[in-house]
Amino acid sequence: MQLKVLTLIMAATAMAATNEPCFGADGRAGVCVSTSACSSAGGITIAGGCPADAADIKCCTKASCSNTSAGNCRWQSDCAGSSVANQCPGPAQMKCCSSAATGFGGYAAPAFPAVGACKAVAVTGAKTLVAAWPGRVRQIYCTRDCACPGTSDHCCGKAIDFMCSDGGGIPTTSGRQLAEWVMNNRATLNLKYVIYGQKIWNPSQDSVKAWTSWRPMEDRGDVTQNHWDHVHVSFN
């Protein structure tokens, strides 16, 4: 387990696909599962945490489990202590964490792409965010093997994926803080738009607001495509 940075998950409700993250009772990290699955695992649900899903899919949290007296269920990538499986609702990555503290990051500084195919605005933006949030970004991706303009700003080297969990396809609630920071520093970054956790914010369309009120996106089918393991930032 990597050294984790302590932080606070703020209370929220979030659009999410089944078995993907949400924010539940008292702002705890949760998972979108059926009410019956939550109950059988000893969790509690709140309404409105998973509005994209069927009526019986709700945000499930479990505040107490048996991995020390501080044990609580959260995504393994966000645990500041050791994690134990088979005590929590949801997929295998939702585990009983031994720490009451929320742990994010603790990663070595990522490598930055060279300016070229990855444009200067993106490289500068990547360096600015990483400097503001040391230890929180594990890896950076800029370009994609596609012709510009293509269907993504990655095709033109004007987008960065900030991977902020322990690995690709591993969910984290860490990205909310990074995404809101990007919004608040939109002018400095020359921001086009930012995506995290199946929500998008665009300075040309949206007012400054908490991530919980950002515009929802469609369910694209997995953790990475729904942006639960990284923050996508597109630049002008």
From TrEMBL:
InterPro entries: ARB_07466-like_C. Residues 116-228 form the ARB-07466-like C-terminal domain. The keyword Signal applies. Residues 1-16 form the signal peptide. Keywords: Signal. It comes from the Eukaryota. This is ARB-07466-like C-terminal domain-containing protein.
